[in-house]
Amino acid sequence: MKPFTTHDFQQAKANHLLFKRQLSASLYNQTTEQDIRILSQYACTLGQWLYNHALIDHEEIDEVYELERVHALVHTRSRALLKTYTTGHVEEARRGLPELEQATDRLVELLDTLERKLLPGTPEILDQAIIPGPEILQDFFVHSPVIHCILTGPTHIYSFANPAHEALVGGRKVVGKPIRDVLPELADQGFFELLDEVYTQSKPYVGREMSIVLDNGRGTNRQAYLNFIYQPIKNALGQTEGILAYGTEVTDQVAARKKVEESEARFRSIIEEAPVATCLFVGPDMRVDVANDLMLRYWGKSRSVLGQPLIKGVPELVGQPFLDILDTVFKTGKTYKAKAASAELKLNGVLGTYYFDFTYKPLFNEQGQVYAIIDTAIDVTNQVLVQQQQLQLAAIVEKVPIYVTITSLDGNIQYINPFGQQLLGLTPDEVRTKHLRDFFVEEDMNILGNEALPALLTSHHWEGKLHMRHFQTGELIPFDTTSLALTDPTTGNLEALVAVNRDLRPELLSMAQQDQIMQELKASEERYRRLSAQLEEQVNERTAELAAINEELAATNEELAVTNEELASANEEFAVTNEELEEANQLFSRSNQNLERFAYIASHDLQEPLRKVQQFGDLLSTQYGSQLGEGIMYLERMQAAATRMSTLIRDLLSFSRISTWQDVTALVSLTNVVETVLNDLELRIQETGAIIQVEPLPNIQGDRSQLEQLFQNLLSNALKFRKPNQPPQIHIHYQGISAKDLPPTVKPARQARAYYQVQVSDNGIGFDEKYVDRIFQIFQRLHGKSEFAGTGIGLAICEKVVTNHGGAIIANSEPGQGATFSIYLPVQS
Description:
Strand content: 15-25%
Strand order of the largest sheet: 2-1-5-4-3
Shape: flat
Radius of gyration: 43 Å
Structural class: alpha+beta
């Protein structure tokens, strides 16, 4: 295929820009054309030039490869949008249009760049348009649904305007008139100034979703939004003669996007202001997209959990059923509801059991797929505890050797415990057939009617002495009776009467034993009354809250349905983001592989010639040293340099391995780590007479070998940079510190609520703190190698190890006053 000419470049730009406008017009029903043909990226003229010529003959130009990628994206994305539109998903197709328009604009920019590089002998074509002839105007512009006009000269006189432009300006005839005269309402809107700038500087201007207020031709103004391009028109000498303007009205598009944004904001507001605990989980990993303050309080978490998967934000849920239930709801699309479900949650650092009524409701996108789950929950811990107390009380009543009975308000017996049945000679089947009058003589019935019942109705309590009839022998048994009125916690209405009856006959049970039992029962009754009162108060509060909730949720159901459709578009953006992350992961993996290859070279290929230099040097020194004379000095210097080079390569190898560290951690005792390092440095410690004090250190999640390297380097430096004729004194200790109390200069690699501050202090030569930013940089030294040996990598390794463990390291010192290195490592939850 022949190389592209200037005309070919211009035609390719025009074709793709025109297609972009046609597709936009079609998606917004601004054209009557029913059939839009989209060629593959290989079939169009530009694609043929790319694959048959440019990628072969111009492979050294980076823009060629980017053009190939962008060109393929424009074609494939266009086909996808058109297919989405024709299958009825109109809004989804329109939401994808801005990405296509941006890619097309980039394609035009790349064509301009390649035109300059491949046709350097031609006049500057970038930012240029050739004034088309009448026949091209007729075919290309007049019938186009896209807005087109040509403005000539510095006063911008209309020389051409197509019907779409005429419709935009309310039917006004503009040809032959300056734009300032025919569209005076544009004054102070910035458009005249833009045209002047494009004309004088010969640079195009691209406007996206720019607001414009126009006279609609009926004496009133209307606001519209435009995507447009002002392209300078140049003659053969490169002089600007006019401006080609073309664009598309995107008012509906902007309105739809703003509606989505407002709806999403309203949806978030609904969740955040809901009177019940509410949150939204998005995606299969249950990312916490939004949660109101009440839900965060239930979890015992701050707003830092927003944006995190639920399993990371609330790790206490691991091993509990909720994560599996959410996964099932996401996969099946079926709502899940539960009552009084127990959950282990950590509040104020204390793990406890709480009870909730909750609902997991799935949200669906336009394709009917679940993309999120709304979680609403109500804390019913107090109600559950009251029920448990009631069950405990019932268990006591069943076993206690005291006669207990429950009676309805009309006098029918509802319950008698086993001891009472035996005491009165009743079988279980006979209990519910009895009435109060079956138990008492007339005198006791009068006491019940005149004293007990009025007291129970007013104060819910009565105590007195009564006689009850034994149903087998007819014996009247004396009882000391305590009666309570039971009320419905939800309504407060009187429901039943409970009586605890102590047999006064001394032959059955001693008074002391019965008194003790009665005290226990009264204590249980008092707890029950107190819990019932609390439950009644809480139920009333919850009832009022639920009434308000039902009203609000009913009002927002319709909004949520609309929002479901609007939020579905986020799925596509998430997919694109995932692709970008996958690409970044691949790049990171290749970078690690390159570093690993470097490590292999450093540990083998670079060390091998050094070992030979050292070996041959040793041979020369031992076998020919006497013959070398003064040359032995140079041989010794060569050996010393080779040794330093070998040390440098080993340190670089350590640094590269730490840089490519894979996050494999286990629980590590820092106390054991320091003990291991001290054993390795035992000879050096004895030589210097060092005094080292190590206090107990914490356990952390980390890589033991890296942590040993950290303390090895810090302790080696403390032994190396000591004062002359003074034994080193080194102190290692730690303390806990909250995140809010961190020094301003400390920026840990991972956020946590608290950190361990491990300090390594010495009494060495110290350093000036103006160099504190240099000491952790690779190859940075504050002393010459003649004073202290080293490569300048040790502290860089320390900083890398601490960063790998999510922490930070700083140093404080003064010349002659020693140094303190402070390590901040996150406390694991």
